[in-house]
Design brief:
Elements: H1 12-42, H2 46-74, H3 99-120, H4 128-158, H5 169-190, H6 202-223
Helix pairs in contact: 1-2, 1-6, 2-3, 3-4, 4-5, 5-6
């Protein structure tokens, strides 16, 4: 296919479904994380209830992350050699020159790392050192991956990681998600467990999670109104 050929036509319904799954998963996952943070802050049901709510929310986050990958690899786009991506629906691909794919893949990886943190938080009584190794460390790694995914997405949509455009719903979705990632990182830093068994700042950890999760929920809602590229 020549570089000047029109984009292949992807079945619109498949892309729309993937977009709706992505949007719905982040809306529900973000909402559950926000609820979990409120439960933790109000000390309702004990740490285990909040941990279970977080874990269920994490399943939705991972679902949304994978659906984002499907959108990135199946939406019509040019490859680096100038040809268009093929018409066959793909469930996985490796496209290192596609920034949209890289952002989605890094985000999906981040959700899986968060899953380790969420499962480990259900292990029961852990020492401060065990909490930092099994819960805090994967939380930090997941936050770093979320931030990196946001940077890649900003470069993809704006041409720069710092440029404030405010043009189009797609840009706002990426921006709101990145604000959420920054807040998640603030929460993660504040949740480091000191040797005496206390977090650095419990309130900051909970409210940072609540606000960050709310950003992802809002961005998920916004994505329902951002139709995927269908060629």
């Amino acid at each position: 296919m020549s570089a000047t050929a029109p984009a292949p036509i992807r079945a619109p319904s498949a892309l729309r479904r993937a977009n709706e799954v992505t949007a719905g998963a982040f809306l529900v996952g973000g909402s559950l994380f926000a609820i979990g943070a409120l439960l933790a802050q109000a000390d309702v049901g004990g740490p285990r209830l909040a941990a279970v709510v977080y874990l269920v929310g994490g399943v939705f986050f991972s679902t949304g992350g994978y659906a984002s990958v499907l959108l990135a690899i199946n939406a019509p786009h040019r490859r680096r050699d100038g040809t268009w991506a093929g018409e066959r629906w793909r469930w996985w691909a490796r496209e290192p020159s596609n920034l949209d794919y890289l952002a989605a893949a890094v985000l999906f990886t981040g959700t899986l790392v968060f899953g380790i943190n969420l499962v480990d938080s259900l292990l029961g009584d852990l020492t401060a050192a065990q909490l930092d190794r099994l819960v805090w460390s994967p939380d930090m790694i997941g936050c770093v991956l979320f931030l990196l995914a946001g940077v890649l997405a900003m470069v993809d949509i704006s041409g720069s990681w710092w440029r404030l455009r405010g043009e189009g719903l797609g840009w706002w979705i990426v921006f709101v998600n990145q604000v959420g990632s920054v807040l998640f990182m603030v929460s993660a830093v504040a949740s480091f467990v000191r040797a005496d068994g206390d977090m650095i700042a419990v309130g900051i950890a909970n409210w940072g999670t609540f606000l960050g999760a709310s950003c992802f929920a809002v961005a998920g809602l916004m994505q329902f109104y951002e139709p995927p590229g269908e060629g």
